[in-house]
Amino acid sequence: MALSLEVLSAHYREYASQPDSWVQNMEATKESIFGRVISRTFQPTSGAEIKVVVLGASDKRYVDIHQRIFDRLVGRPVKMCTFDIDIEHLRGAGRLTQHDVTKQFPDPPYDIVVSHALMKFLTHDEQVAVIRNSVEALRPGGVAM
Length: 145
Known about the structure:
Blueprint: H1 5-16, H2 20-41, E1 50-55, H3 61-74, E2 78-84, E3 96-98, E4 110-114, H4 124-136, E5 138-144
Parallel strand pairs: 1-2, 1-4, 2-3, 4-5
Helix pairs in contact: 2-3
């Protein structure tokens, strides 16, 4: 990735400094956005468990937030994982895989692939690679957002 870890570190520090009330507001916002997409596009075809991967997390609190959101939205057991190029800032959170998402995703297929803020940090070519990898990693009936 062309993105420098210095730029990411500044972003991570900014999010880590936000109070829990701000993060709770972000949870509500994300759930609203994700809920609209899920209700209009997601048609699971697999078994009981829904496999979700989140591409990047600005703060370790978001790892649990994403799990809660998808637990509520899909109404089925959710196996969640977060991919991040650098997982040091997420230390203490579970369900993490250090991975450059411009490369093919490990352990497909996924029912849902989510990227909320990551794309703004990537070059155009990297964005295209992430979109391609997201779509290629989906199970039939899955959704990338």
